[in-house]
Structures are given as C-alpha cells and as structure tokens.
Specification:
Helix content is 39%, strand content 18%. With 416 residues, the protein is of the alpha/beta class. It is elongated, with a radius of gyration of 26 Å.
C-alpha cells in the first residue's frame, strides 16, 4: 500500500509540473505565432509526446534494467521538457512584471476599467521560443552526432620518483563502455579504430562494461576483441553497473549468474580483470605496479578493498591505481600513506552535458555532485585522472562533454 501511494504521488506531481509547463509553452506558441494551424499542430504533437512518455514509463521493466526503449524515452523527455522549462521560466518572470504592473495600476487608479494583467508581449514570447531552441537543438545534436563524437585527450604527468625505464611510458585509458546503450556498429568500429591508431604501452579499462545485464555485450564482443594488445597488456576493473544492481532479480542465483557472466566478458575481449589485486610490470631492471580495486563509491557499492589490492606493496613502489569512482580518491586514496602515484577513474561521464573550452572554461552540472569529475587533478604530487567515458547512459547523447579515449604519458621530472 505504501509503495502504491508513493507511485501515485509521483505520477500526480509529474502531471502537475508537466501541466504547468505545457500551459506556459502553449501561451508562448499562441502569442508568438498568429497562425492557428501552428497552434493546432503544436497541441497534437504535445499530446502524442506526452502519451508516449507516460506509456513508456509505465511499461518499464525492472527485470531487464535500462534498454533502448528507456534510452529513447529519457532522451525524448529531455528533448521536449528542458526547452519548455526554460521557456516557462521566461514567461513566469514576465508574469511577475505583469502582476506588478497590474497591481500598481489597480491601486494607483481605482476607477480604471482596464484589465488587471496587461497582455503578454509578443516579443517576449518570441525571445523565449528562441532561447528554448538552444537546448532543443543541443540535445538533438547530442543524440544524433554527439554520442559518437570520440575525442583522444592526451596528458603528460610528471613524477619525481618514476623509475627511469618507465620514463615516457604511455597508458591508454577507456572507461564506461555501457554496451547496452549502443545501436550503431559502424560508429563503435570507428571508435575502436581510433584506439588502435594510438601509440601506447598499456591499456586499462576502469569499469561499467554494461548497463545491467551480461547479455548486453553479446553483439559487441567481436568488435572490442579487435582492440590491439600492447606490450604490457590490457587490464580492467569493475564499475557500479557491473554488479547487476539496477535490475530486479526474482532469484539471487540469477543475479549471481549475471555477475559471473559480466566478469567473463573481460577475458573474452582480451582484458585481465583485477579484483582487488595488483600486477607487477617490469621493464629492464625497473618495475611499476598496477593496482585494481572493485567498485568503491560514496553513493554506490563499496566492494573495493584497497588494503587487499595492495598486498605486498610498499609506499616506495610506484603505483597506478584503477578505481572506477573518483570519490574513492577523495575519501581513501589521495591521503593514503601507501602513496598511490596515479589513480585512473571514470563513472561521472561528465554528466554527458556541459561546456569545455580548454584553458578557459570547464563546467557541468555534475560538478555539484562530484568534486573531481573530468580530466586531471593533483594533490601533493599524487594525481587523479577522470575519464569522461566511451559510451553513454540514461540520456542517449552527449552535449559538450564528448566520449573520451585518454592517453597519458608518464614522465620523470628533471630536477634543476
């Protein structure tokens, strides 16, 4: 009964908010355009879109997690209602001015026969429509082009204690594949080819191979198997989505089997999965250590065991840590006496939405949730790199925060 009440309350709130937004949006259309056919077509499209959203959300199957249908639904919801929310904000501000003017006229001239609220200004409605067109076109571009707009981002990180033989060592990082969201084999193949064009010594993947189910990767194993194997191999860790926690399971046995299936994907595509363990990488007489933990998140599953993963290591050993969620670095890693030199994470996707102008501006709404959300960070000579993700999740697109292939070069600092 309590669950039913919660669901009903959620739907009531949804319809109230959607109703208010639709009223404002229609007023903008009605004021901005005189042609009645424009009004009618707008009403028909809005009703069809709203019915589709309600139907799709009501049919969501928790047993299968996120799929193509939910991606389309969420994308359509953002495409329609974010612009309408911005439009409504403009008209709500205009209403405050109209209310103020009406109140002033009412009290200043009690004998006036004019209507209390002045009419809406056509210019304001047209401006609000123009403003709403910006997020609409951005979200549409993100869904059509942006989600596969792969970028190779390169960074050079300097260390005082990097072993000499590893000076110039190159690490390629992938993260957040989310294979259950893919729908274009040619675009994914292009991304894989772009990876293979890079020069790197080690390849690492920092979690979220799937959205929920191991079967999501079935059609993509052969594609990802084509990623070349560099001299020091390919290694991976698990992310929060790799545990199957975002689906309803009738039997715990089914959940366990799905988890085993997800872990089995990694060797199929040539990756060695690190489950709270470390590997020694040797070059000549020198060595560095690759440490891989299971997911550890402030808000999500805490399966990562940093102490176990670092068994046999000392603070003096040079270490690269693979940990999916960057909040792990914030809470356990950066101040650790074990001295983890470089931590590679993902998870945030940069929220798949934001503005990045190198050297000038870097903003995304996700920064209000995660302190470290994209790119390179440093604290007392220890570094964190947060990959923006290869795939996409929830919103089927990317705006301003493009899918990323990271190439990091390790360099020994020359003391002057």
């Amino acid at each position: 009964m309590r669950n039913f009440a919660f669901i009903m309350t959620r739907w009531i709130l949804f319809f109230i908010v959607a109703g208010l937004v639709e009223v404002y949006a229609y007023q903008a259309i009605k004021t901005g355009f005189e042609n009645k056919w424009v009004h009618r077509i707008y009403i028909i499209i809005s009703i069809i879109a709203l019915l589709f959203l309600v139907y799709s959300f009501s049919r969501f199957d928790r047993s299968s997690g996120q799929n193509q249908q939910t991606l389309i639904t969420l994308g359509l919801m953002l495409l329609i209602y974010v612009p309408k929310l911005m439009l409504s904000l403009f008209l709500a501000i205009e209403d405050l001015f109209r209310l103020g003017i009406g109140a002033y006229q009412y009290f200043a001239d009690t004998n006036s026969n004019s209507q209390f609220l002045p009419e809406r200004r056509r210019f304001i409605s047209q401006v609000s429509l123009a403003v709403a067109a910006i997020p609409f076109s951005s979200f549409l571009y993100g869904m059509v082009k942006g989600r596969y707009n792969y970028k190779v981002l390169k960074s050079t990180v300097y260390f005082n204690d990097l072993p000499d033989a590893f000076d110039g060592f190159k690490v390629l990082q992938l993260s957040d594949i989310h294979s259950g969201s893919f729908d274009n084999p040619d675009k994914i193949k292009y991304g894989i080819d772009l990876i293979n064009e890079q020069d790197f010594d080690l390849l690492v993947f920092t979690g979220d191979m799937v959205n929920t189910l191991a079967s999501e990767m079935d059609n993509w194993v052969d594609v990802f198997r084509e990623i070349k194997t560099p001299e020091f191999g390919k290694f991976s860790v698990l992310g929060n989505h790799d545990y199957g926690d975002y689906a309803h399971w009738d039997r715990e046995e089914d959940r366990a089997n799905n988890f085993e299936g997800i872990k089995a994907i990694h060797p199929k595509i040539g990756f060695e999965l690190l489950l709270n363990e470390n590997k020694r990488l040797e070059r000549g007489n020198d060595s560095i250590h690759l440490v891989g933990v299971e997911n550890w998140g402030k808000r999500f599953k805490k399966a990562g065991d940093l102490k176990k993963a670092s068994t046999g290591l000392s603070p003096e050993d040079f270490k690269i840590l693979l940990s999916h969620d960057p909040s792990h670095w914030d809470y356990e890693v950066r101040e650790s006496p074990m001295n983890y030199h470089l931590t590679l994470s993902g998870h945030t996707h940069g929220m798949q939405f934001g503005i990045e102008i190198p050297g000038f501006l870097k903003w995304s709404p996700v920064q209000y949730v995660y302190r470290f959300w994209a790119g390179l960070y440093e604290n007392s000579g220890r570094f964190l790199y947060v990959n923006r993700g290869f795939g996409y999740h929830a919103y089927p697109g990317r705006v301003g925060i493009w899918p990323e292939i990271t190439l990091i070069e390790l360099k020994k600092r020359v003391n002057s």
